[in-house]
Structure formats: C-alpha cells, structure tokens
Amino acid sequence: MSNNSQIVNLIEKGTKYCTSLTEYKRRETTSVNIGDLWMGSQYPIRIQSMTTIDTMDTIGSVEQTLRMVESGCELVRITAPSVKEAQNLENIRKELRKRGCNVPLVADIHFTPNAAELAARLVEKVRINPGNYADKKRFETIDYTESSYQAELERIRDKFVPLIKICKEYGTAMRIGTNHGSLSDRILSRYGDTPLGMVESALEFLRICEDENYFNIVLSMKASNTQVMVEAYRLLCKKLDEEGLKPYPLHLGVTEAGEGEDGRIKSAVGIGTLLEDGLGDTVRVSLTEDPEFEAPVAKSLIDRYTHRAETTTLIPAWKPANTELSEAFDSPINPFQHFRRATEDVAVFGGHNVPRVIADYSQVGINEHDDLKSIGHFYLPATDKWAMNDLGADFVYSGQKPASFMLPMGLKEIVDYKIWSEKNCPENLFPLVAIETISKDIKLHNSLNFIAVNIDNLKPEFISILSSLRKAVLVISTNNTHGMPALRRFFFELISQAIKLPVVIWRQYGAMSASDFQLFSATDLGGLLVDGLGDGAILSVPQNTPESEFQGLAKIYNSTAFGILQAARTRMSKTEYISCPSCGRTLFDLQETTAMIRKRTDHLKGVKIGIMGCIVNGPGEMADADYGYVGIGKDKIALYRGQQVVKKSVHADRAVDELIELIKEDGVWFEPAQNAELADML
Ligand code: SF4
Known about the structure:
The protein has 682 residues and is an alpha/beta fold. The strands form five sheets. The protein has an eight-stranded parallel beta sheet. An eight-stranded parallel barrel has the order 11-14-15-16-17-18-19-20. α6 (185-191) crosses α7 (195-211).
C-alpha cells in the first residue's frame, strides 16, 4: 500500500473545515453589518466584550461601556434579562451617543423572546441562545418520533419568526449563539451533549432565518471545555458547507474561562487554535475580571494574524519522494473528535503517560538547590529532603551545564549528547542528540534518548533514521512563523509513516510580556494538544535573558506549560475554576468570591469548581464542573454536586464553608501542605 493510500484510508471522508491546514488563509465569510460596523472575512477580526453592571444602572452601564471602548472593544454586549432592561438599552444608547460614542450595542437574550423583540428595535444586534429562546429547561429526556420532532421545529418557528421580521425591518443583526452548557432538552435527547448537538442547535434556528431571507447573522459555538469548543466550531463550518448554507461569520469564545493566567491560557487554547486555521471574524475573551481587561487579550490574540499570510507559506515539513500528501488539506486525524496520537511507551513518555513538562536551564545551568524552586522542586535543609508542588517539572534540560549536585527523585536531567558521552554515558542522565548527528554506530542510552528535530531542516533520508529509532523521544521545533500548522504537518507525516515515537514540542519566543507569552504559547501548543498531538512540552526562556531575571521567567514558563496541558485537558495538575465572567444578572461579587474559593481550594488537584453569578444560566454553563457555587438571590447560594443541586439555599456567609464540607463528604478533600518549612517556601 502506498503512503498516500494509507493516508487516504486514515482520513475520515469530508474532514474539511477550513481553507488550508498549511497556509494561513481566512475562511471566506459573508459580510454582516452591525450598525456601521462591518464584520466578516473582508474586514479585520473584530473585538468585543460584555458589560457586568446592572443594565438598569444607565450611567454605570454607559461609563463601563466607555471604558471598554477605550480598551479596544468595537462592539459591546449588554444583558437584557427582561423587557424592563431591554427598554433601558434605549437610554444607555442615547447617553452613549450624547457622549460621542457610536459603538454598536448587542442585547444578550436568554429565555425572553419579548425582550428580544423590543431590543431588536433599539440596538444594532441581538444575541439569542438557541438552547433557551423557545425552550424551558426541564432536564427531561424525550423520545421523539420524526413527526413529533418536526412539530417541535414548527413551534420554534412560530416563536422565532416575529424576531426575524423585526430584525429585517430595523436592519438589526443577530448572533445565534450556542452554549455547550445550555442545550435544550430536545437537542440533548436527540444528539446528546456533543459538538454535533451544539451545531444542530444553531442550525435549527439558522434554517428558519434563511427561509425568511434573513442573512445578517453571526454564529458561535462556545464551551468551557476547549476540545468540545474547537470541535464544535469546525463541525459547524463543515455542516454549513454540506447543507449549502451561507458561510456566516464566526464569533469565537471560550465560556467561563476564569481569571488571570488560567483564564488567558484557556482562552488562547480554544480561540487561538481556531484562529490558526483562519476561522473567526470576531473574538470575545471571557475573564472573571473587569470587562476592560478582556479587549487587550483579544487584541493580542488577533494581532498575530494581521501579517501572517504575507510572511509565511508553509513548506511541507518533510516530504519523502514517495509521499503525495497534498499541501492544502489532507489530514490523517479526525478534527471533530479528540483522539490522542498512538505512540509507544518510552520510559515515562507516550503510551498512556500524561504529557511531560521539561524545563530548559541550558542558558544558566543548575548551580544551587534553590535554582529549582522556580520549577516546583524545593530543598528542605532542616531535613535534607526535597519536596515538590503540583507544578513540579518532570525533567530539566541543562545542556552543557549539568547540575553540580544530586537532583530530587522526581526530577530527571537531560544534557547535550557531548556532555553525556564525555561523562561516560551515565544511566542517571539522558542525552539530547541532534538528528543530523545520528549514525549507525552512535552509542545511545539504554532506556531514554531525546532526539532534537528542527522540522525546517528535515531531509527525506531522515525517515529511515526515525523509523529505526527505539527508546527515543522526538523533541521538535520550528522557526516558521506559522508554527502550529508547520508542526502539525510534521505530526501528520509521522502518522502517515506509522512512526510511533513520542514527541515533545519545543517552543522559544523572543522577549515579550508575560501575558503575550502565555497567549502565544497556549495557541501554539494548545492547537496541537487539543488534536491529541504531543507528549510533552518545553517552553524556553528567551535567549540572552539577564541572569537576574531568569528564575522569575522560568517560574512563569513552567506554570504556563502546566496551564496549557490543563487547558487542553491533557493533564490536570491544579484545581480548575469554571467561573462566569459576570454580567447584569450577577448576584454576588464574582471576583471576590472566586478569589475566596480559590484561596481555600487551590490545592485540590484536578477538581473542577463552577462559580456562577446566577441561577438562570449558571447551572448549564458549568456543565463540566464537579461542584458548583451558584447565586440564586441576594446573599443566597445554591451548591451543586455535578449537575445536582444538593444545598438549595445557603447564606453567602456560610456558603464557602459548606462547599468545602460537601467536598469533604465526598472524600475528595485533603489538607494543604502540612510541612511548615515547605508551606513557607510555597
Ligand atoms: S452565569 Fe454569570 S455571566 Fe452567565 S448570565 Fe449568569 S451571571 Fe451572567
């Protein structure tokens, strides 16, 4: 069987969801006008965000909107939970215009068609959630026949057409915005909690719009789970093409991403992965922070692509003479469902091992015990022992400057091959060998070798070397500015050649802010990990970093690597907070409460806690969480175990304690670090 036919056999028919997997090309989309603002592939990717203030607070909403516009928002969404708030959008809009601000406004609607119909007359765009526009959540599983399902669709049509007519009359745009957490009982009954269900949820409404000749539409497929979110957007593009529906602009977002570093990394894994393939016409980053902090993050994500098409044409990473892999769109993986690439188990890499984190100390070497604090390993002089926190790196690469003391048990050292061979090939060190230097008679380690492969310099003859290697982990890098697709292309080649060596992804960036580094590395690594590609990560501190700054950066780079693995759902090393960004419905101070819950629980590795501002959308939005803390009224909180409410109304003063009691009842709780010496260091 030729290589090409092997690939064709591997490709599920019709996996095309973007224009090219190798060159940066934006997906061609229709143009939509939102007031005077145009959106679609003919225009720059737009930045937007949502207010958090009560919509009835006109001046507060206006002032917050002005701050958001100042920070880079090109359109601003405001919640309209009922007709009263929808009506007040008029006052907010008038006041904004009076102050010289023409930003288009978007009314955010859940459950209330009457509020939508009013808002569509007053503002430039309405967002509806197809999961709750015409349906109330009853958590029922319903057995539909074809005709009873059709009857449901007719019921939706009757409720939805009046809004379409108003939008057409007033020139109002609409977003049909699916959320993974708030799919209707009808969709869940027929399609389950799946990307396909999310897509179908939007298409039910979209088909009605097209029947009514209404096309001023934007679509979104948000989820808190980045794998689900990426798969749903891709599937949406494929389904639009298949059904001959128009290629509407996409609004990208990860819901309930959280705050700070975690929120930025999670947003970038989801949004960045799609942007790399040219998907996305507007971006909203949802952080549990003041909304004016969201636009700069969206801007950093988007700006990377402004000149991407001009600066890169992807040269196939590796093209043996007998491979006919098309450069535009051949994929041996299923982009609509996460599968990890099948690899051999090599020491602690590949197979069923979690992806590993390797810290790069080759610039400065490992000179003192305390050098390892930045990567989660702590020497305790009083007991002459080592301790490790949840972000303890698995390996450290010291290049030509090996450690002068014995490393802790949980940390293994990688050195350059030259050093390894000069030291007589010790068992407790592992060599990094450039693929160009591998020959038949080279002596390698018995159990674990790292093979450095810069994919930009690959030659076809390396295929036989890679095929013959055993006890080896590839460490791949590229200088290509379209880096994620370049590396992905190399993975495709490995799959097509049935080479099952584990692969560590090695990325290095120039000097930049910590936030940009988190966003860019999360995009580049996350884009591979969500597709099951990659068995480890090295994020190197920029070359020529002053020694005095190295440890500070090493700490950020190490925690970012763990954060990316967690955000791509490939290795859970910390508590995950699925906290909503808050909006006009929020019933408590989300930032303060999230900080309080984090302080008490952030040692609970792998536990997912949802923190939601309201009962209307909260329980649905935290579909993925193990425990939930949801506002139900003034100072009243409901606590959830999974999707089940277990404490219906707890006073806010006691709610965090009761949440911890609940975790304890389940035997999931353990006390934070007991060792006082270690606690001091952490
Ligand atoms: S869950 Fe949070 S962001 Fe969503 S509607 Fe409720 S308060 Fe607003």
